[in-house]
Specification:
29% strand, alpha+beta
Length: 130
């Protein structure tokens, strides 16, 4: 069994108050998912299980620190740890691959949990769209 981890950026600016969104430029949720794992949430259409890592803002260099802190705190308190998005939706977003990992089927949950812990502590590389 192979775990094919991917980082995906979800543009979430429209869900933020205008003042914070304006200062941030754009706000992205950064998520980790396994491209080889498709789940079905009470429907035939498959979904990916996206695991929240962090929030990223486009104007990080020019945005005041207190605004960045507010966005970070709000995102961490309001964002679900796991979200489900249809595969065809995620396939259209910017993705960043991580090294594929091989594991036995019965070890999947353990290996995935270790990978998530690592990524939450050491956010993998991604580049925000211009």
């Amino acid at each position: 069994m192979y775990i094919k981890p991917r980082i995906v950026l979800v543009e979430e600016t429209e869900y933020w108050c205008d003042d914070l969104a304006k200062q941030a430029g754009k706000i992205y949720g950064v998520y980790l998912y396994d491209e080889n794992r498709v789940v079905h949430c009470c429907e035939l259409t498959g979904s990916y299980e996206l695991n929240a890592l962090e929030v990223a803002i486009l104007n990080n260099e020019t945005c005041p620190e207190d605004v960045r802190d507010d966005i970070d705190a709000e995102w961490n308190s309001a964002t679900e740890l796991i979200s489900y998005f249809h595969t065809y939706t995620v396939d259209d977003w910017d993705k960043f691959p991580l090294p594929t990992q091989r594991c036995k089927a019965e070890e999947y949950d353990e290996v995935w949990e270790e990978l998530m812990q690592y990524c939450r502590s050491n956010t993998p590389y991604y580049k925000l769209p211009d």
